[in-house]
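Course exercise 7: structure representation. Students receive a sequence record and must write out the corresponding structure in token form. The form below is the worked example handed out in class, using Electron transfer flavoprotein alpha/beta-subunit (252 residues). Read each field label carefully; the graders check that inputs and outputs are placed in the correct fields and that the protein name is recorded exactly as given.

STUDENT ID: A-19
EXERCISE PROTEIN: Electron transfer flavoprotein alpha/beta-subunit
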Amino acid sequence: MKIAVLVSIGRHPVSGAARYSRNDAAALTMALSIAKERRASLDVLHAGDPSNPALQEYLALGASRVEVLDVEGDAIAALAARLQGYDLVVTGTRAEGAFDSGMLPYRLADALGIALVGSAVDVSVKEAGVEVRQFMPKGLRRRVQAALPALVAVHPMANAAPRYAYARLREGTVVPVVTRAPADAENLQWTVKPATAKPVRLAAAEKRSGHARMLSATTTESRGGSVVIEGSSVEKAQVILAYLREHQLVDY
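STUDENT ANSWER:
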């Protein structure tokens, strides 16, 4: 069995200094446990700058070797070419930058043609495939199964406790690999530049009185809304658009 872990460069929330990503560190810890239990081979991959010193921190977290694909811009094509033949790919839900979209697991699973299981808090490999306990809102959890090969995106609140050991950092190695990924015609049509405007969160205006808001802080009550399970994606999108129009969050 072959397992791959994708890691990214994290960012300290106060100083902004580069460090390991806590989400990816949890993914690495879970993958190390699975590799030890199943006696599988484990590769740790990063797409980006191989000279970043933050990559060495993954060595201290248990990776014996970090392979860095030296690519610029979109790394989906390079990662998809490198990950051919792996049974399980584990990664964090998203990187820790201010404007990261969290779309890499979805795009990579689509490029590889394998199943994706997101928001994982527990991961185990069975004979039938991979079994994942997923994080859901309001403290709910659910178990899902997927056949291998599969890609698992680990939730930041995963049941994993990374252990940092400086001796392992000195023993491991960071290996840069030059890749020649095929050009993506769609990506060539895009222009990439730093984001300037911060995203604005859409929130409906609060119309209740102060007394009602204080009561809601101490009691559990229904805030309205609707749960749409049946129907096509177009019908579900229409429900969301109707809500945005009702609360004047969009003007079209």
